[in-house]
# Entry
Amino acid sequence: MRIRPVGAHALLIDCAGADQVEAWRAELWRRRERGELSAVEIVPAATTVLLDGVPDPATTAARIAAWQPRPGPPEAPGPTTAATGDGPVYVPVTYDGEDLPRVADHWGVDVPGVVDRLRRTPFRVAFCGFAPGFAYLTGLPAELAVPRLPTPRPRVPAGAVALAGPYAGIYPAASPGGWLLVGRTGIELFDVHADPPARLAPGTRVRLVAA
# Structure
C-alpha cells in the first residue's frame, strides 16, 4: 500500500488488488463516520482509493499509514438508500442475453448453470465508472472472468446485464459496449433528479434475482 498526494487537498492510496481496495474503502468509511477522518469524497477504483477534500493531506496520510484495515465482511459499511436501508439491492433480471451461450462455454457449464450461478452470487459494488450510474460488481471467482467482445457493439440497451473480466455490470443508459450480455432489467439505476442520483454506490450489496 502506498499513499500519494494528488493536488492540494487529495490523497491517492495505491492498493495491491480489489480485496485491499474494498478493505481500505470500508475502513476509511468507518473512520469518517466516527469522526476520525475528514474527507469530502472516498472514491474507490480497480486498484486505488481516492480521498478528495482533505483539509490537511500530510497529517492525514501519516494517520492512514498507521491504520490497519479490517477485511471487508458482507456487512462492511457503505452507502445506504431509503429504499433498501442496510440490505442488498435486489435487481430483477430476465436472463435472455444473447451472449449466455458464450459465457456457458467459457465456464464449462450449460446456460441454466450460468443463470443459477449469477442468481446465487452475492455481489458488491466495487467502484463506479464508464458512465453515470454504471457500477462494477464483484463477487464472481477469478476463474470465471470472461473476455470482452473483440469488437464492441455500437449500442447496448439501457438495463442490459453483462459480464466482462471479473465484473458484472448493468448499463444504466444505452451506449456502446463490449461486455457479454446475459440478461436485462427494468430497474432505473441513474436519475439526475434523485438524491443520490445513482442507485448503486461503492459498497452496496446487490443480488441479481430472476424476474
